[in-house]
Amino acid sequence: MSSVPPPDGLLQALRNGQRFILTGHRRPDGDSLGSALGLARVLRQLGKGAQVWNRDEMPPVYAAISGSDRIHVGESPPNGFPEGFDYSICLECPSLDRTGLSEHLSQLPIINLDHHLGNELYGESNWVDTGAPALGEMIYRLAGALGVAVDAATATGLYTAVMTDTGGFRFANTTAETFKVAAALVRDGARPEQVSQWVYESQSEATVRLLGEMLHSLELHHGGRIATVALLDEMFERAGATAADAEDLVDHPRSIAGVDAVALLRQLGPGRFKGSLRSRGDVDVEVIARSYGGGGHKNAAGFEATGAVEDLTAALVESLRDALG
Ligand SMILES: [Mn+2]
User: What is the whole-number distance in angstroms between the Cα of residue 136 and the centre of ligand 1?
Assistant: First the structure.
């Protein structure tokens, strides 16, 4: 797929502006953080001021990326905003409200940089390349277009972005072009073993113990195509874990050969559960989540429900069986 080059208007805005505020989406991920911190460094190399501002705290695994300790976090603006800034740069946000900071950011002209389908082109300047595996890859090209040589710290941020958005170079968005960019970033100083250790091997002990608890509850249904798991209050207690430690555990049962759909019920209180559904390919779990008043995407959705865990599980297995056909 041929890539969309950065538009002239964007390059002009970045050259003309002196101080930039950069923000990503709520619940920041590796691509939004690595791209924002990378672009901030590129802008500083051009002699500009750049401040990253996110509505939500980042996951601690990204704390080692250079500059992450200087991100301004929360709803209230950093010092000097908006009068001391020329542009708001929104990264990885298909719509402005995904920042959680729309009212503040729209006080300045907006630059919109993204690779998601359905971007609403809400900026004064928009650069959206849906063929890019990660925004970090676009930022690398942008640095080149601005004539900035990427240093090791910048390369590390952008490598983190590309690695996480491709699931460690495993997802369908991983192309020959992705490896070319990754090779360039490694040449510029990113260290693959270091970044993968930060992202994939820096879990809390409580998370791994909670995984063990969850796997004890694993049951397979419908000829092994549906997996159900539960996380009950006593499991959190035994593992010494909190809700934050449970974040990505639902993805584990999907790694079983033959499993096409997963349901996790996580206890929120007496008789109250958060349901998380995951699926592969055409199996639509968003419809099921919506029937419980929740929502999400086709292959990843969630909801809240009350009842006994056994009854809720049985009902979900039935719905998933229908969805699988
Ligand atoms: Mn992304």
Answer: 8
Do 289 and 297 contact (CB within 8 A), yes or no? no
Cα-to-centroid distance, 191 and ligand 1 (Å): 20
Q: Please name the helix (run of DSSP H) or strand (run of DSSP E) that holds residue 306, with its range, or none.
A: strand 300-306
Q: Where are the alpha helices (DSSP H) in 127-175?
A: 135-145, 152-165
Cα-to-centroid distance, 35 and ligand 1 (Å): 9
Pairing of strands 261-269, 300-306: unpaired
Expressed in angstroms and rounded, the spacing between residue 164 Cα and the centre of ligand 1 is: 8
Calculate how far, in angstroms, residue 99's C-alpha sits from the geometric centre of ligand 1: 14
13-71, pLDDT tens digit by residue?
A: 999 999 999 999 998 999 999 999 999 999 999 999 999 999 999 988 999 999 999 99
Q: Residue 34 Cα, ligand 1 centroid: separation in angstroms?
A: 10
285 C-alpha vs ligand 1 centroid, how far in Å? Answer: 22
- Let me know how long the chain is: 325
Secondary structure of residue 90 in the 3-state scheme: strand
SS3 category, 302 = strand
| Residue 86 DSSP symbol | S
Domains and CATH numbers, the chain: 8-200 (3.90.1640.10), 205-324 (3.10.310.30)
Separation of 135 CA from ligand 1 center, angstroms? 5
Q: pLDDT tens digit string along 283-293?
A: 999 999 999 99
Q: Are 226 and 324 in contact (CB under 8 A)?
A: yes
